Amino acid sequence: MAVEELLLEFVFSGEYIFSGSERCRLDQFLAARQPEISRSRLQSLVRAASVLVNGDSAKTSYLLKDGDRVTLKIPQPVPLHLEAQALPLEIVYEDRHLVVVNKAAGMVVHPAAGNPDGTLVNALLSHCGDLAGIGGVMRPGIVHRLDQDTSGLLVVAKDDLTHQGLSEQFKKHTIKREYVALVYGRILPTRGFYQSSIGRHPRQRKKMAVVEKGGKSARTNYQVLRYCLSGTCSWLSLRLETGRTHQIRVHLSAAGHPLVGDQVYGKKGISRLPAAARDAELLSNFSRQALHARCLGFLHPVSQQYLEFESCLPADLENLLEAIS
Questions:
Q1: In which element (H, E) is residue 275 found?
Q2: How far apart are CA 297 and CA 10, in angstroms?
Q3: Cα 190 from chain centre
Q4: Contact call for residues 185 and 257 (beta carbons, < 8 A)
Q5: What is the DSSP pairing of strand 51-53 with strand 69-75?
Q6: Is there a contact between 10 and 72 (Cβ–Cβ < 8 Å)?
Q7: pLDDT for residue 275 is more than 60
């Protein structure tokens, strides 16, 4: 069956003149007439010859003149070739533009090698009946991720414009993201930050590391909330100013304070505990990194309202803290 298209026709006139000029670029005109479609999506439609000017294809930089006829064909989003799966989801907030999820530890965000299904994307394809499509594909718009074994808040876009708006906020580091974590060692001073470049580990390519060359600048602010196990562990609040892969885990490990339960960056952490620490076995048996995305705040790309959400500690972390306090 042929994919249905939405066919729109416009006539350029002086009301769409920009910056005092008598002409304006094609992409500016389209953005003004179709504000619900992201500029990147409109540009891809122009490149695909789905935009015609007086019956002919044109470039995004084409300068329209009075009386030009612009035809825009918008294909319906094509299906994503992934299975929609009715998996358990904790929805914190939802409207027709976005959804905020409290992700459980153990759930992968997006299908990849080794995790072809059972992911957050599979669950959202089942849950969201109002996806408008991202880049012409019927899919949820993932703008940031949490590691499989990190729990907490994550926002997902349902349409192109929301996806672009959230992506811009992440790019400009204006999203509020706060985490809590349990780490080995007594961190001093009780408030500070870690700043360094993070890139691929020079020998273990699946890992990230603090690097001198080739990485991207990263900054993690921290505050000690309390010490546990007579000061042999620290319970922290962390605020990200950047969003590099494994940023918190890498920064804390490099500082000598790896996350409890981190099987990639924290294997040596338990060895730093005093031999007589009564709960050393409890810590070493914790099955995932003790990291939770507790707070998420952002400007809604459509309503322009600031939204902020908080997530309670999951039971496994709450029980661990109780046991070592």
A1: none
A2: 38
A3: 28
A4: yes
A5: antiparallel
A6: yes
A7: no
Could you tell me how many residues make up the chain? Answer: 325
Q: Give whole-number Cα distances, 8 to 73, 163, 303, in Å.
A: 6, 23, 25
Q: Across-strand partners of 217?
A: 197
| Model confidence pTM above 0.70 | yes
Q: How far apart are CA 203 and CA 254, in angstroms?
A: 16
Tens digits of residue pLDDT in 66-115: 888 888 877 665 555 678 899 999 999 999 999 999 999 999 998 876 77
CA 57 to chain centre: 35
Evaluate the omega torsion of the peptide bond into residue 189 and state whether it is cis, within 30 degrees of 0: yes
How many other CB atoms are there within 10 angstroms of residue 117's CB atom? 13
Q: Is 324 exposed, middle or buried (0-12, 13-18, 19+ CB in 10 A)?
A: buried
d(CA 264, CA 257): 13
Helical spans, DSSP H, in the chain: 26-33, 39-47, 120-127, 160-171, 247-254, 280-284, 315-324
Catalytic position from the list 56, 95, 147, 160: 147
- Which helix (H) or strand (E) segment is 153 a member of? strand 151-157
What the block records as the tokens of 243 is: 């969003």
- Give the span between the Cα atoms of 298 and 96, in whole angstroms: 16
Residue of 93, 91, 95 whose CA lies nearest to 103: 91
CB 100 within 8 A of CB 153: yes
- Which phi-psi region, left, alpha or beta, contains residue 254 (left: φ > 0; alpha: ψ -120 to 50)? alpha
115: helix, strand or coil: strand
147 classed as catalytic: yes
pLDDT tens for 298-318 read 999 999 999 999 999 999 999
